[in-house]
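Worked problem 6 (solution included).
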Amino acid sequence: MDTPFNRITGNLIAAIVLGLLLQGAGLAQSPQIEWWYDLDAPSFGSSATGDIDRDGKLEIVFGTYFNDEKIHALNAEDGSLLWDYDTGGCNDATPVIADVDLDGELEVILPASSPCLVYCFDGATGAVEWSASTSYNCLDSPPGVADMDNDGKPEIVFGAFYGYVYCLNGEDGSEEWRVNLGTNSYIQTGPNILDLDGDGALDLVVGQWQGDMRVYGLKGSDGSTLWYSDAPTDWMYHGGSFADVDEDGKMEIAIGCYDGNVYLLNAEDGSTEWTYNGSIYIGAPTSIADLDNDGHLEIVFVDYNKVGALSHTGTPQWTYSTGGNVFRGAAIADIDGNGTLDVAFGCDDGILRAVKGDSGQLLWQYDLESHYADTFEMGNAPVIADFDDDGKLDIFVVGGYGTSSPPTNNHGRGYMLSAGDGTGPGWLKFRHDLFNSGCFGYGADPEPDVKIDGDDGPLTIPSTQTVDLTISLDPGSGEGVNHDWWIGALKASGDLFCWTYAGGWKYCPGGVPLRAYNGPLVPITDYVIHQGTIPVGSWWIVFAVDESDNQYEGTYSDLIEVTSY
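Solution. The predicted structure is:
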């Protein structure tokens, strides 16, 4: 985009090859442990990552099982503790990071399992902003966050024991709606959030553990049933992933079931597009990506101890066998930087692995159980990002041993490892994004947005009028990746003023822009950067994000024109 800024401004270290035992031929980059963090229990589910304290660096947030019973927020660059909070029970559900109250700062949302409480924490301090009780309905469902009722504010959706699905208002935790899908069932799945019926509003999809063993499509505004599928014949613990898999211009849901099948369901009505039959049971969540750069999407699934990929038509592409259950599924990223995506996963055999997405050939493996020198079952999906800001991807996972009887036997550790020479987008949370799409690249390019009093302009206003100048950002597939942020106001006379996160508005001599902020892209909604009048004159106001090099390129930008008289 040609913005006023465009008109004004015009040490890779090779990994040591160790000769790992490979499945197939070839050499692999070797991960190195960067730091670890000891715990009194493992973490089930996965972690969420984001710059929750606005220091320009990512943090990692996760909950722990009995005997530890906390949510931990760690500085990702070195594993130091930012804050923690004792919930008083097990925390099996993965947290989520989002600005749920539209204050311009990030919150951490955690459904605490056995306390049956949903917590909203201030991301920077860990202070409890609100909590909401679900009575005796235990919570294992990883939440999703989106504007479900079209009121311009985010809601939080999740499942619970005894068949309940909840939708809470993000600003205070009040209940927007609650539905029951059968008290003899449990909704453990993370809800997929997407428009099912083509009305432009978001809906959700969940699956049942026990009960009728159905997949339900629910209307986002009130939780009413749009459709259900009776295709599954057994339980579903983890939710599906979604994308336009069959290339018909509509979304499909790929979900695994304990009956040994992967089902691809049409999102508009729940009908079955195709079924793949495995050999044991498919309890882990599926993930979706174009793994071989052929222009078609593949589906990653787990058949107990075998990780595999299916074509968009349901044809098996490859499988990789491990020594134990891979219950939390896989994360996807270009780990080795060769331009083709890779698949990473932890296993109950204590080994963290990455395989090549186009072939299933082992890229590398690390025996964390040997390093830990104790049982190290990974009932935890890894997250992937450039956590230490060295320009290359890292990987974080938690393991250990966890039981409810007696919980005093529990123990655990979180490990951060270098992943490879890859520099692209990572996999920042359990199901990839706030919509729980489980699809690499879902959200496409970052979308900055700048408005005055909610208007995109052009505007003509009196110089005495008080206005709110706000910015919003959909980070898309760039979420968690460091970028330069730019906010500037150019006057027709040529004077340039730039807003910086640390110092507010500043004049820029010679029209050389000042960077507002350098840090990971995160979702932002209507963050106020100026509240007051606009000086007399014609102005172009720009919000842009681009490559992290302190040089303005304006790769992704939005512009508003305003004349003040």
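Discussion: The first strand starts at residue 33 and ends at 39.
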